[in-house]
Each structure stands twice: as structure tokens, then as C-alpha cells.
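Researcher: We are triaging several targets before committing to wet-lab work. For this one, the compound of interest is adenosine-5'-triphosphate. I'm pasting the protein sequence and the ligand SMILES. What I need is the predicted three-dimensional arrangement of the protein with the ligand bound, expressed as C-alpha cells, so it can go straight into our comparison scripts without reformatting.
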Amino acid sequence: MSTLEVRNLVKEFKVRDGLRRSTLRAVNDVSFTLSAGRTVAVVGESGSGKSTVARMIAQLETPTSGEILLDDAAIGRRGRALADYRHQVQMVFQDPFASLNPYHSVEHHLARPLKLHGVARGKDVLPAVYGLLERVNLTPAPVFAEKRPHEMSGGQRQRIAIARALAPGARFLVADEPVSMLDVSIRLGVLNLLARLQREENLGVLYITHDLATARHFSDEIVVMYRGDVVEQGPSDEVILDPQHDYTKTLLAAAPEPSRHGRLRDEVRAELAAG
Amino acid sequence: MTDTRTRTAPSSVPPSAPPTAPATTSKPPRRGLRGRLAGQGKLVVGLGIVIAIVLFAIVGPFFTQDPRDSDNAAMLPPQPGHWLGTTSLGYDVLAQLAEGARGSLMVGVVAGLLAIVLSLLFGVVAGYTRGIADEGLSLITNVMLVIPGLPLMIVVSSYLEVRSLFVVALILGATAWPGSAVILRLQARSLRKRDYVSAAKVSGERTPRILMVEILPNLLPILTAQFLFAVILAILGEAGLSYLGLGPNGSITWGTMLNEAQGGGALTRGAWWWFIPPGLMIALLGCALSLINFSIDEVIDPKLRSAPAAAKSVRKARRAGLDVTVHDDGAPVRSGTDAQKEAVRR
Amino acid sequence: MTATTTAGPLSSAAHAEHVARLTPVLTAHDVSIEYEVDPPVRAVQGVSLTLHRGEILGLAGESGCGKSTLAYGLNRLLKDPAVLRSGEVTFHDADGTDTDVVALDGDALRAFRWDKVSMVFQGAMNSLNPVLSVRAQLEDVLTTHRPGLSRTERGERCAELLEMVGVDPVRLDSFAHELSGGMRQRVMIAMAMALEPQVMIMDEPTTALDVVVQRDILREIMRLRERFDFAVVFITHDLPLLLEIADRIAVMRAGEIVELDTAEQLYAAAQHEYTQTLLSSFPSLLGDFSYDDGEGAGR
Amino acid sequence: AACGGGADDPETTDTSESQSTEGGEGVATDRELVIWAGSQTPITANFNPYAVGVLHLANGGIYETLFAYNKAADTEPISMLGTGFEWNEDGTELTVTIREGVTWNDGEPFTTDDVVYSFTNDAAQPAYLAGAEAVDDTTVVLSFDTPQYTNEFALLGSTYMVPEHVFSANEDAEDAEAELTGIVAWPNAEAPVGTGPYLVDSTSDAAYTAVANPEYWGGEPQVSNLRYIGIDSNQSAEDLLATGQIDWATMFVPEPDRLVDAGLGYLNTQVDPTVLYTCADADMGCSGEQTDVAVRQALSVAIDRGAINEKAFVGLAKEISPTFALLGRDDKWIADGMPAAIEQSADAAQAGEILEAAGYEKDADGFYGKDGETVELTLTSVDGWTDYNNAAKLIEEQAAEAGIKVVASTVSWNEFADSRTSGEFELIMGGVVGTSTADPYQIYRDWFTSGYTTEVGTPLEPGFWNFSRYSNEEVDAAVAEASATNDDAVKADAYATVQEHIVNDVPYIPLLVNASQTFYNQNDYTGWPTEEDLYLFPPAWQGPSSGVILGNLAGTE
Amino acid sequence: MRFYARRIGFYALTLWIAVTLNFLLPRLLPGDPYTILLAKLQRNGDVSPAIQNTLRLLLGADEDTGLWEQYTTYLGNLLRGDLGISVTQFPTPVTDLIGGALPWTLGLVGTATVLSFVLGVGLGAWAGWRRGTWVDSIIPSTTLLQSLPYFWVALLFIFVFSVTLQWFPIIGAYDVFTFDGPEWSWAFVGSVLYHAFLPALTIVISSVGAWLLGMRNMMVATLSEDYITTAEAKGLSRRRIFSTYAVRNAAIPSVNGFGIALAFVVAGSLVTEQVFSYPGLGKLMIEAVRNNDYALMQGVFLMITLAVLAALFIMDLVHGLIDPRARHSD
Ligand SMILES: Nc1ncnc2c1ncn2[C@@H]1O[C@H](COP(=O)(O)OP(=O)(O)OP(=O)(O)O)[C@@H](O)[C@H]1O
Ligand SMILES: Nc1ncnc2c1ncn2[C@@H]1O[C@H](COP(=O)(O)OP(=O)(O)OP(=O)(O)O)[C@@H](O)[C@H]1O
Ligand SMILES: [Mg+2]
Ligand SMILES: [Mg+2]
């Protein structure tokens, strides 16, 4: 079974504040393993380093130290090796409005990776594009292939982005908050699509989110990050139902929960009544 | 009540209509040219003038006499055969104007192109790369930005012994780029961080292709605007240099025409037909290019169009009594209920 | 076509009972708002709503359903190209006078704003003027509406306000860019509290914030509400959140309020289909969940 | 009073007195006379006649020469500080009589010592002057090693008399900034001491003013106040003239009628020829088809001078004599058989005949060539000299009609200066400095003799004007002969030889004589040189004549 | 503080580059000042041998020093304020000429630019505030003003207002027919203002459009910002919203652009000064160019660069005052 493993990943950014330069450790010693057919969720508040981890895995950033291993082999960072890696590991970005180039059609967005990775050539490209569109439930495919990003809704765009990530035939998908920019009513649809693809195609998915509920339900394992550190990691239900670390507990306490309606109001009233 | 008719269209718009993409990156839907130009008065006027001038430059010389033919009487006022009169040497002003249009446009376009190429180099490359390259290029840009252009041009051209049209255009272009470079750099910087650039990288695209295919198209409106701006500046710059006697030698441009008109005492001799047209042509072309820039600005920042348009439509609606609120900014004050009743009646 | 075709929102008997005990502070009747674009957008259509003294009324609905437009309409803040096509908005002051908000103009309108109804906007990040210090912006409100206050009184009031929302008063001299997102939002809330208004409209005041920070701020709002007893219209698309804080919830869709009920009732027995869909879009953190990859949520 | 100056009339009587020309009807006036003599702003106070930046008033208005020569007409020199002069037999001694009773404006008397000093100080002494000596209180003798008849004007008409007691004290002046020493470094800005009709009053960077010298030897000038202003463009000056804000200016105005209609007096004096320099002598290293005399001759007849004058020079220039004698003034020097004025209209046919006779043939494009090589000449003019640029364009057109390909182009002043001194050019539109007296000698010597040129590639030395590299032994000999005599007949013979050659060889293709337009306020002032009484060359910038004119002016009311 | 340190570093560097450019330009091209000067003098007739000699001594002797040595000498001279000698105004030092011209340029260009800025920003703010009204329709016509060649406008003005109507003077910075140089009197000050009017008007007319447009666009953009809505919701008066909330924010880019724009205006004013014979740097420079007076030309160029840098520096300080964000990092 193939795995994508990160080991002791560290990322430091040089930040310049006027003349003084300092380093900011955005990711500090993060390790976890992603296996085919499984989903790992990374949760944590804003700025905790989630995206940085994702970008390092997608090779958009170079780790300061630490290793990324694909099938137990250190990954290549340039040339053929990089292309091979990209072939296997793809990414879906947070903002579907920003991750599609407004100047290009859907077809362009999907055809390019197909061609780049030699998945389809010449006459086969268009059918392959249609195939991808159908896989992400965008039918009729020829209609969607013609469209430009601004002619589609957010959910549809995010589906295109997912299709693009699937185009090279990737086995691992890094999804950085794939639904946080979408309207509540369509979030689940996109997540369900991801879950289905993961099941059907035996994908390994790194699901980055700050929504604990979906993290729990859509992943097998949860990694909780806090200021660059992993503070807790384990099977989803265990982390959510039996949090160990204080930070995880705070996070859980802060998450809104429909079933606990009126809770905050009552808490405050109780507090005020008490003191 | 013409506007009521337009509102009979079904107005139950799906509220969940997709929000439009951020303005800088959106592209108008592909409609016919006519459709796209509708409501773009400034663009239409601007393009119209520019096209007219370009046509004048291209075809004009075939219909006018040789601009260097001195066989006419000197200083003729406008008359049939010499619609804009003649110069002190007996040259036909209209013919010179047409030939000058070629010269000036050529200076403008060459300088504009050079400025754009340089600003792309200094702006986009600096914006897209990081570290030393960026620092270095930006520094050069900033320094060039600060060093005053015309004086530099004057100094450089005064050292040149032969100034062809082309050389003058090159000088103008070489001093006109820093402003655009700064803008392009900022833009490229922000584009570099766009997710679709990252996405293209993850897809395995190479840097040159990313620059050309993903980034450049998004810079097009700005590039066009900067180009047009550089053209205006170059044409004005050429005129200024020519006035100082540092213009291109041996060619006819609107600038050299003005210089000759000035040297020939056109104004004091009452030969307005010699002095006024070249200046007006420059202003007209500049104005037209600015008008086009206006529309480009509105593409880049749709607020520029939508906000005034919104204000206009609301005033229209108010005049039609479609607003029940009371306004203190000049709109007719009417009681809420009256307006409301009227609205309901409709 | 008239603006009164809508049948009014669904609500339960429990709701009617709940409402009967309360006194209204702001009533809106048949409010229709249209964006005068081509083609015109009917963002709010014949909405009637009553806000009661001291209550938190949640306004939920998906993006673009007209929540913000309605909120702006209630406070006469509609910006071009929005036009209030019809509707009555009446403010019932604590001193017993009623104000026809729609008929207000000029100075009267300005005097009404903030003093009676204040507002916290969607993006607090951008609600603060970047070139004015926090103090200047707080004092702006006081000098405009409470011209009688002396300089020192104003200063004291500003400090007091910041303390109230849990921000160190030394921050008075800071500028927006020097504050974190949470702080800015708190400053905005402090500003909204400055005149102790009877109604506060909050348009997604916490969406841009981290859950932990969000929770703190909500707690702050609740606490202040208990203390000053103002009514709150709380707009968000985060239904679970709303369920936790709101007394009543109005669900909006396509410019209309489709359901209006108490939070308990809405959670327990939502009547409108749309409300149910909305509720099911939020998997429970602690409960179970079943996958559904049908086309239902495909938009 | 008649002027001497001829060797055949050694004992000269008093020359014409400047006062004699003073109009009788003039009255004294306080009205400030505003003059533009070509100064540009900023004006820097400098009244040292030896300095480069000397202001116009100094030359004539403050410092005077011994005599005033008339460049514009063949009249006798006017007696200024000198009352008479005499050449010895062989032209190696010049005896000058000095006016008595003249004082410097600081009260010191003007003496023969001052005269000697003015000729012999470091800044002034010409190389050919062997010595100067005061013989008695009123007589100075200048001595030379060779005959110097031809330098009479330089000595008597353009050497300014300066006070020894002031200037000798400043001989070590130092201009630290300019790293300059000697008398030329001294700006003489504070109350300059001269004998002239005016005293400096004030100087600013925009203007300087002068008041009448009450002690002037010729009597206190009638016009008591002068203001010289700096103006930076002809256009401004013309506008100021038109609006009556300046009273005297010499400048190019394309339509003088407008100003004349406005009541201004107007004199157009044409003295300086405009020509095409041709690098003429292949033996001197010149290259290009213009080295063939036939090409030069053909080009010369192909030019429509009338059209050029009409269009490029707005009809203000004057016809030129191919002999370079100034028509009107120097008529007596034009040899018999020489055409007076050059043909004004073009004769394309004749040009063709000349070329065909010399073996040129027309090519397919209608241009003449030889051995398959089309004649192509580049005609340059200085960028921005509009009249020249325009004339060059017209010549290009006219030559083309005669089948001669001329390409007009403009060059920077530097390049122009460079190529004409180095000889690396084909055709240049340029000026010839006219002579200052009624005698073409100076032009013949400076522009046509081989002593005043060098091989192509070697820059001409300053003072060498033979840009065309014309060298003709017979011309050289004839000019030498003319220089050694004061006998008009001998001179005329020599000139005939010169003229015969230069008319045929056309090393400079004559075009016309350039205009110099002087405008003056005749409503408020009288005493100006006029068409009828052209007693001196009228330009405001010309020293010392402008000083003499100033001394002559008076108010009308 | 660090912000300013960086800026100062930048200025120093720019200055150095300008200075070096100035040094290199003339050396890249041949040109012997002696011949040039002499030829210039000879154009006006006789040059006495004495003057020729002195000139040769002064200018002709070109020591064979290395480029680097020349460069250090040049820098040293610069530091001592020695910019060489003007050929046109021989032998006046360039510094004296610049010293005489600088105040005029500063006065004229400075006033005109500030006027144009204030006018443009003011009108632009108003036009932005009144967006969507008839004001919008006059905005495009300002582009016409912007595209008029400066000198063309200036020449027309002189022709119409000074020559034909005789309302304004034709030349100078003050009445050169009355005053013997600058003096401190009301009459003189009045004369200076009177003489500055037309040139300043030309500059203002040709440059106001750019400010107006820029400001108007920024206003339109700013007015849709949330903080404006907030201010409205706060019940602030329209005046206060306009001034403290809208204009102050919208003007920031204009203020930032001021320094850069100044460079443009200075360039344009060069020509204007020439047309009006205004005794400023621009005219000096053009005279220098026309007379191949390289020392003067370079001196003026350097001076203009310095002036622009100084203006930029002042704008940086102002920017720090009006935009608190600038005070922290860059
Ligand atoms: N290119 C960069 N340069 C400097 N600092 C950076 C850079 N990218 C990220 N950071 C910093 O690294 C830290 C982690 O950022 P990251 O984007 O990984 O957080 P995140 O967990 O994804 O947050 P969010 O939930 O807001 O997306 C932050 O403090 C951020 O400011
Ligand atoms: N300036 C405008 N011009 C035209 N239509 C507008 C404008 N502003 C809003 N709308 C439309 O009005 C409708 C309601 O918008 P509104 O901002 O009230 O929605 P919302 O419920 O607040 O959404 P969100 O949750 O995204 O804030 C939307 O369909 C929107 O597209
Ligand atoms: Mg992130
Ligand atoms: Mg909203």
C-alpha cells in the first residue's frame, strides 16, 4: 500500500520588519503518514501552519528541514522526479474563485494537466476532459467544458478544481480548506464528492480544515495543530470525543453545535447570576 | 415612462445567483462586439478618434500632395486645394499633418512598445521572482522613476549627433517605463500569490509558461493602459523635444511641425492654420487614448463604472418615484406612504 | 404584481406564545428592496418582522439571500443602487415615542442612527477608518451625538467602552492595522455600544474570526446584552452558532423570510423544507453522520 | 569733413566728427531707452571689453575705439578718440592723432599712454603689432614688421581704449572659480571707467541700466537713461517690440511690416553672405563628387535663389555677387566683366549641359552620374537654424529638378563645427562673415587662400576660415599683392584675378546676403541711422557703432 | 524610524547614481569645450588673440588623468559645491547661475504644482463625491487638458493674453523694465505674482487633469469601503464623512504620487519657463543645451534631480503623517 509520509517537517519564514529580520517558525516538527484510501484531517486555528504543511507537501514551499517520503522514498524536487511526484500528489485550493484562472476555459484547466502528465494526447484529450467532468458530477460535460470560471457557482468551480487535481491520476490529494469559501448549503455536497472519490479510487486525502465536525466525519485520523506544533493526533473519534490536549478541548468547546442550542446564552446568564 | 417598460422583465432573480469573481480577474462574457461596446460611450468615442487618426496617417498621405513639395505659394490660408493652408515654405499643411501623424504615431508606438517591454522586464520579472533579482530590478526602477525624465532626455539627446525618428522614440521609450514597471510589479506580485498560479505549478507547468499563459493575460488590461499612457507621453515628449530643437531630424512629426511653425512665426503672422492643427491633433489623440484608458480602468476596477452607474440608476428610480425613503440630497421629498402607495399601484 | 403576495413566514404556536410576552422595539412591515441594476434584483421582498426589546433575533440564510440588504434597509443605510421600493419601519423608543424610520431625513436621520440603532458590519477589518486612531473614531460618535460631553468625559467614556469589550484602553491610540482581527471586532462592538442604543444590528460580526476568538466575542455580546438589555439582530449563515445564541431565528431565502421561530422550536421542529436542508448541512460534531453523495447538495 | 586713410593722402585732415551727424531737431529726454542687444538672461555684470561675457554697452557705450567704421556703407570712418591717422609709405607704421581734452569718467585725463597701453597690453596686442609708442601728447605711432594696411580696421576700428590706471591694476585679477588669471578674468563690474557716452547705473540678472555721462567729450548725450534687457527668444523680443516695450533691437522678424505698421523704424542691412561650403579640393583630401568643379557649377545654376530668399528667408535677404563683394557697398571692387549679382532663378537645362559636358549621364531615376555612380551629395545644416534648414530642403528639391541628388540633413552644432573645421563634409549650408569695411579683402584672404586652410582631417586653427579647402596659387598671389598695397588700382587688379577664379571655381556656392533687421523707436527718439543716412551699421549688438549711435540719439519732444 | 532609514538609503543611492550618470554622460561622447566656445564666440565676429590665448589656457589643456581620478576629483568638486564654469555665461560658475535660477523655479513650479495638486485633488474629491451626476460627464474632457503640449498652450496664452490683449507681461519673473533686480517691496511682490500668473496657469492647466482623475477614481473606490458605510451608520455629518473618512483615505495615493508627479511637472515646466523667458532652472537648462554648455546642463540636471529627491523626501514625511500604516514597516 502506498503511503505519503512527512517526517519532522519544519518550515521557517524570514520575516522582515523594517531593518530587523527575524524568523518565524510556521511549522515545527510535524510528522504524520497518509495512506492510500485513507483521509487525514489537519485542524487548528488560523495561522497554526496548516496551509504551510499542505504547500510543502505540494512542493510549493521547500521545507526548512524534515523529509517527505513517497512510498518510503525521499521525494524528488526537480526535473523528472518532480514531475513524477506531481503525477502522484495533487492539491485542491481553498478559494475556488482564485484557483482558476479567469482567462481560461474549464477545458483548458483540465486539458493542461492531462497533456502535461501524458494521460491523454491529441484527440483523446477532449473525451478525457469530459470524463473528468462526469466524475465530479458536472454534466452535461460538453457544456461545462466550454465555460469560464466566472460563469459557474462556487461549488461547481471547486468541482473543477478537484477534477483538475484528479487529472494526472493522482493517488494523493491535499485539500486545503476545500469548502470554507463555499456557501453552507453546498459544502457537504463537495465534501461528499471528495469522500466518494476517495473511496472509489482509493485516494489518500489530506483534508485541511478548521471545522471540527466535518474533520471528524470525513476523516479517519485527525492531526491538531497549534502554532506550528502538532499537539494531538489520533483516530478521529478519539480526538473529538476524548480530547487529551487542552488546546483540543478549547477548540472543541468553541465549536458551535446545533444540538446545544441556547447553550451560550444560558452559560452567560449563569455566569452573571453567579457573579 | 420609458424605464417602466424595461422593468416588466421577470424580476425574480435567483437570489443564490453565483457571486461574480473578483473584478480584476473577471472577463466580460463573450458577446458580440456591438453588445460589448454598448454603454461604453467613452470607449467608443476614444476608439473612434484613434482609428480615425490612424486611418488618416495610413491613407492620408495618398490623398494629399507631397508634404515636401514647396511649389505652392507660401503662407496660404485654408482654401480648396489646401484645406489647411500652406507653410512659409509652401508646404501643404494637411499633407504635413498626415505625414506628421505617421511620424508621431510611430514615435508613440515604438516608444510605447519599448516602455512596455522594459516595464515588463523590470516589473513582471521583479514581481515574479524574489530575492536579489527583485531587489535589484526594483531599485533600478525606483531610481529611474525619480530621475526626471525630460531633463534626462534633453541631456541625452543633446549629446546625440544624429537623431532619427527611431532614435528619439527609443530615448523616449527608455525613459518612460519606470512608472509602469512599478504598477506591473505590484500586480505581478499579487498574481504570483494567486492560487491559480500555485495550481498551475502543482499541475506541473513550467515557469515561462506560467508567466506567459497564466500571469500575462491577467496583466493585459493594465499593460494596455500603460501602453496607451506611454504612447501619449511619448508623443507629448517628442513634441517637447522638437520644440526645444532636439526632435528627430529629417522626419515630419506633429512636434517638428510645431517647431517649424514656431520658428516661422506662424502665430504672430496669423497663420493659425499652421500652428493650431498639430497641437490639436496631439491633444485629440492624447484625449482619445485617455478615454480608452478610462474604460480599461473601469475593467480593472469595476467600482469606477458601477458606482456612478448605480448612483445614476437610483436617481432615475427616485425620479420615477420608486423609492419610498426621504432624501436630503436634492431628490424630491415625498411622504413615505404616498410613494409607497404609488409603488404598490404599479 | 404587488408586494403583498407573500403569505408570511411559517412559525409555530410556541413562537406566538413566546412573542406575546415581549414588547416590540423595531417593526418592519412589507419591506421590499430592489437593486436598480439591469435586470433589477429584488433582494428583499415584502418582509415583515418585529424585533422585541432585549431579544436576540437571528437572521439566517445562504449567501445572497438578502440578509445584509434587509439589515441595511432597517437602518436606512441602503447604498446605491439599492432602493427601498416599499415598506414601513417603525422604531418604538423606550420613552414611548414611535419613529417612522422611512420618513426620516437629513439631520433627523443622522441623529437617529447609532443613537437608537447601531450596527456592526460584516467585515470589521474594513469598518475602521485606517487613518484615524481608535480614539478619534470613538469620539466621533460622542461628539456627534453627545455634544454636551466635555473632553475629559469623552476620554473616560472611550476608555470605559474598551474595557467593557475586554480591550486594554491603551489601545485607544492605536490604528486599525495595529490591532488583531478580534480586537478590531471588539472595538467595533464597543463603538456600537457607545450610545447605549436600543437596537444593535450585527451583520456576520464574527465570520472572519477563529472559532476560539469568535466564541469569546459572542460571549462578550451576550454579557453586554444581559447588562444593557438592547435588542440584537444577528445575521449569519452559521445556523449552529445562531442556535446557540439567538432567542428567535428567522430563516431567509430568496429575499423572503420563510420561517420565523424560537431557536428551540426551529431546531426541534423546523417546518420549512429549506430550514431542514439548512440544518442538515451542518453535521453534528458529537452525533452521527451519514454520507450522501447524491446530487441534492450539488449546487 | 572727409576721411583720409589713403596712402596717397598721407596728411589726413580731421575725419568726420560724430557730433556732426547729430540731428538738429532732437531734444534731451528722460524717457528710458530700452534696448535688446541679444543678451540672454541671466545677465552677469561684466564690462571688461577683453572678457568673453562682456555686455554690449561696454563696447562703444563705455569704451570707445579711435575711429568708427561703417560696415553698412562705403563712408568715411568717424573720428572718435582719434582725430586722424596716417600710414607710412610701406605700410609698416601707422601714426594716430589723439583727441585732446578727453577725460575718463573718473576724472582722469585720457592720454597717449592709455592708447599705447590699449594696444600693447597682454589681452589686446595682436601678433603683427611690433610696437606702439607715444611720440608726443597727441600722437601715437604703431609699428609693424610687414605692411598692415589691411588691419587698419582691426587697429583703429575695433581696438577699445581702456584706462591704463584702472586696467593695469587689475592685470593680475584672478577668477578662482574659473581658474583664470590676467586681465580677462576681471569682470570690471563696479563703475567701469571709460570715455564713452554712458555710465553704468545698475545691473541685475534680467537687465542693466545706464545713465548719460555728463562729462562726455562729445557733450552729454540727450537720452539720459538706457536699459538693456535680456530676452531669451526671438519670439518674445518680437512680441515686446510689437507691444512697444522695447525701443531698439536687431533680430529676425519674418514679417517686419507688422512692426513698421505699428510705427517702428526699420532698417534691413544685409552684409553677411550665406553660401554652401563645398569641400572643394580633392588634393587637400576632400572626397565626394562636389570636388568636381562641374558639379559645383551645375549645382550653383540649379539653385533658385529667388525662391530660397522668398520662402526660407522671407524675402528679406539680398542678392549676392559671385565675387563676394557686397553689392552696393563694394561695387567699385567688382572687376569689369564680372556679373554683379548672381542669377536668381534656376536653370536646370544649363546645369544639365554643364554636367553632360563633363561626362555625366542621367540614370534611370533621372539623376546624373558618372561611371554608373550616381552623384549624391549630403547637404547639412545646423539643426534649429530654421532658415538654413528650410533653404537646404528647398535646395534638395531644386537640385533634384536639375537631376542632381542632394540630400538635406540637419546636424547638431557640434557636428557642424567639427566637420567644417576638419573638412569632412560634402556640402554645408553656412555663413561667411562679411567684411567690416567697404573692401572684400578680408573675405578673399580668410576664405579663399591656402594660408587659411589645412588638409582634410587636420582641424583648422581658430581664425582660419577656408573651410572649403580651396587652394589656388594664383588667388594666393593676388591676395598677397593686394595686402601689400594701399593703391586702389593695384588692389582692384589683384581682386580681378581673385574674382575670376572664385567665380569659376565656386568653392563656396553663393546663395544670398543675409538680412539683419534693426527696429527702432522713431516716435520717441531721433538720430537713428536710416536708409537715407546710413552713417553706421545699425544693429544694437554691434560695438562700437552702437555706442556711437547712442551718443547720437535724442528725444523727439 | 526604520522606514525612514531605508528611504534615506534609497535617496543616497539615487543621488549617487544621478551624480555618476552626470559624470559619465559627457565622457561617453567627445567634445572639446575650447573649440566649442571659440567657435561660438567667432560666430559673433572678432575674437581677440588675447582671449583666444586665455581660453586655450583655461579650457584647452586636458590633462591625461585616469577616469577614476577624474571621477574622484569630480566628486570632490561636487562636495565643495563646485559644478564647473558655464560656457554660455563665461566665466560665471555654474553654481552661481543655478543659485540665481533656483528660487524662481521653486517659486513658480512649486506654487503651480501645489496649486494644481490642491485644485485637482479638491475637484477630484468633489467629482468622486458627486459620482453618477452630471459631474461625471465633464470628467472625460479633462483628459483633453492633460494631453495638450505645455509649450503649445503657453505660446497660445502669450499670443492671446500678452500680445493681443496685453493683459499679461511677455517675459520675465518681474517687471524688468521697472525694477533693477529683485527687491523687498510690495510693488515688487505684486509684480512677481503678476508675472507668475500665466506660466503658473499653463502648468496648472496641463497638470490638473491627472490629479483630478486620480483623486476622483480613488474617491469612487473609497466611498464603497465599509468604513464609509460605518461612518454613515454612525450618523456623522456629511461634511465629516467627506473630509475625514473619504478624502483623507482617497488622497493617500495622490500624496504618494505627488513626488513622482513632481518629476513630470518639473519636466513640463522646463518648457514653460522657456516660452515665458522665466529665469528659472528650466530656461537655464535649455539655454545650456542650445549652447552646448555641458557643465551648466549637468549642473542643472543634478539640481533638478536633487530638487525632486527633496520633494520626495518631504512627501515621505507627509505620507508618514497622513497614513499611519506607513510609519511602521514598508
Ligand atoms: N510566505 C510566507 N512568508 C512569511 N510568513 C508566512 C508565509 N506563509 C505563511 N506564513 C506564516 O506562517 C504561519 C502559518 O501560516 P499558514 O498559512 O500555514 O496557517 P493556516 O493554519 O493555514 O491558517 P489559516 O487557517 O488562516 O489558513 C502564519 O503565521 C503565517 O503568517
Ligand atoms: N450592489 C448590488 N448590485 C446588485 N445586486 C446586489 C448588490 N448588492 C447585493 N446584490 C444582490 O442582492 C442580493 C442580496 O444580497 P445581500 O448582500 O443582502 O445578501 P446576504 O444575504 O447578505 O449574503 P451574504 O451572506 O453573502 O452576505 C444578492 O442576490 C446580491 O447579488
Ligand atoms: Mg490556510
Ligand atoms: Mg451579507
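Researcher: Any quick observations?
Model: Residues 127-196 of chain C form one domain.
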